Fold these 4 entries.
Entry 1:
Amino acid sequence: MTTKALKEVLEHAATWPVEDQNDLAEYAREIEARRTGVYTMSADERTAVGRGLAEADRGEFVADETVAETDKRDDN
């Protein structure tokens, strides 16, 4: 895809629903990470990681039984 074609796609993407724009941004971050070896989290991902770390700091973890049950379902 040429720079011109990429610009055209981005212009059209500006009219897409927010969910589709977010998907496109995620794909672009993944491509950039593959090319550079550096992944840049989105604001939503950064928030989710912060929440997870705060839960861990408070000692809030998923029960071992729940994890074991999930592992069993993944094997099928």
Entry 2:
Amino acid sequence: MKDDSGGDRKSKAASPVLISDPQERAKREIDNGLRQFDAVVHKIDQFIAEGRPFRLRPSTILGLHRIALDGISSFAGNFRPSTVTIGGSRHQPPGAHLVPELVEELCDYINERWEEATPLHLAAYVMWRINWIHPFDDGNGRTSRAVSYLVLCMKLRLRLPGLRTIPDLISENKTPYYAALEAADTAFANGTVDVSELETLLEELLAAQFLSIIEAAKGSRVAYPNP
């Protein structure tokens, strides 16, 4: 969520700067975001075409992060080497030495519950847990949203239609997303895994994504309501 200074909930870590110009960096982030989403779509189409069982692996998470931070960070596609803090959040991510094991545990959680858990729960858990671990020095939010969307589509065995996808809609209004992450962080600090607020948010965003297709089909001006 926003901190008192108005800044986003973002990683604060010491990392080499590969692009110093803000406009150039912003353009690269947009280009990488498009490439990252194309990679997600390719994985979904390949999975559906081949009809094979899905398993979430650390290599998938690292691969999507590599695309998002390509040319921006020297740590693209690698776990962070040191401590990181999150501006605007009370949560302190675990030490860097714990990250590989925690990401493995995240994948185990998803794979072991793949058959019985709902698509919304799996997607919400991935989104929260990657943000909680904060395995990267930068790009944690982008990667968590991409992996979450991948898991949702894989579980549904469907490339979801819509002119604005769930990751797009979150990017346009991050306040509910930050609040839901904080709620899950607080629950976990109290000894409970509870991502219900994120599940509700994803349900609302999924409806908004579908609505964009309905509005386009009707020839109406498409509006994207904030959940």
Entry 3:
Amino acid sequence: MNTVTINVESVPLPPWTDEIKDFVQRVLAILGKDNWDLSVLFCNDACIRALNGRFRAKDEATDVLSFALGEWDRDRYLPGDIAISLDTLRMNASYFGVSEDEEIRRLLIHGVLHLDGMDHTGNLSAGDDPMLLLQEKILAAASLTH
């Protein structure tokens, strides 16, 4: 059984927290993951910019960051943490013409895939990056079971 913990920094706890936990559980099931203890942080642009600067030496806000730990604690796997800026999420949703709900699901999948060891290997702008293609397949599959 997987566990998903939601935390907030500089933003109020979203009312859809339980739905997000259920969605991440479905994503992990689709990927065949078990015994994962995953943490998700929702924050604002200032917070994620500070994280991005501290851990990636990039002085800019971003939509999602994944901090891989990749350790076992007895029978539990600690993959790491995902941080998502709700400010940038809203801007992305508007820019891409999708709902905030769809964009948050996309970012959660993206973060999980990074924690699972995936990284970008294709041309992001050409749309042929294997990680992003898998992300969209998982989004469709996890949304069908919603």
Entry 4:
Amino acid sequence: MDELLGRKIPQSAQAEQAVIGSILIDPNCVPEVLEQLKADEFYSKLNRDIYETVYAMFSYGQTIDPVTVLDQMKVRGVYQDNCPEYVAEVMRQTPTAANVLEYAAIVRDRALLRRLGETADEINTMVYEGAGEADAMLEAAERKIYALRQGRSIGGLTPIASVMQNVIDKMSEAAASGSRIPGLSTGLPDLDRMILGLNKGEFVLIAARPGMGKTSIALNIALYAAMSQGKTVAIFSLEMSREQLVSRFLSKAALVPSQNLLTGQLTEQQWRDISDAATAISATDIRIDDNPTLTVSDMNAQCRRLNKLDLVVIDYLQLMQSAGSGHSWSNESRTQAVSDISRMMKIMAKELNVPVMCLSQLSRASETRQEKRPMLSDLRESGAIEQDADVVIGLYREGYYNKECENPNLAEAIVLKNRKGSTGTVELAWLPEYTSFQSVERRYDYDN
């Protein structure tokens, strides 16, 4: 099409050949190049085939030189009769392997220009064919541009070899990190061990009856991610104001009872503690939006505009039903509305490639049972929420129902669903003064 229209396709044959020549001349540069450049960024199919072969050989620890690469191309079924001459020629024309990262940058730049042109054509086609309403098309266009920024494509069949490389890369990263969990830590070790942390692309649901501490545990996790792990966290609060959320953060970080914060009845030491906590929290990268009419599309668009993002927290799902996803729910049931929202949140998690943690109310069904611990069937309005979520955690405190029980501040985080592993119950300590949770082994004794 581009040739027919007389348009010049962005590419640099010289830069592509120089990259191939460099990695064959000096295989020591292969690790650096593989970090910078993907096989599909080569315009020439032959260059792409050679690069993919080198990538696979490096991943499996094989020796890389012109002879072994040509041999592996035969094994992979991508060998051509002119390959030996071509390999010899690119090695002869490559001035030096020392500049390989500069060559790779040129290849990557041309590839991005090609994809940008393709995306612009897709958006043009969508607009002129009248493929939907303006808002829907704008959302689709933003998603396509965001995917370009992230170096990803939307849709399309991917060769299993490429997926295999991604899996091996993630395994290597996990091994190099030395961490026992692949995901973002919640700050609650026992919970981390069961769900393996909060992982990229996961939709995590925290569900409970009102007053059980849904918001508290979500803010605990958000604050730990930002303060202890230096992560960027986006919080969308449809129930509480920004000021209320920050007060919760201060209470937990300064270990000052939330009631004292509200009344202003503070000792000099507490003021100092709050001042220190405020300084530490202000240095974190936590973003808060308390607009109660936000839709999933609004949240997604805001998150896409952040240069860095590690965790999204949404409080809470049922409050989004009136706004839904930008559509009118007047002729649809409440169940269908919530189902669509939960599905969009899962898509949002995959697209942003970060964990999305959403809070959800449980139905009153648990209140009528003798055993009041939450079950998956208690998820309010929709079985689709259960289906979409990768992890479902139900919160339960016996002390909420029976203040005379043996330990009223013992809480349970019940992992009701876990796509990565086991389900079960994790005991936590509920600290009512600070509306906060701690691991049981680090529980403070406030009675003495």
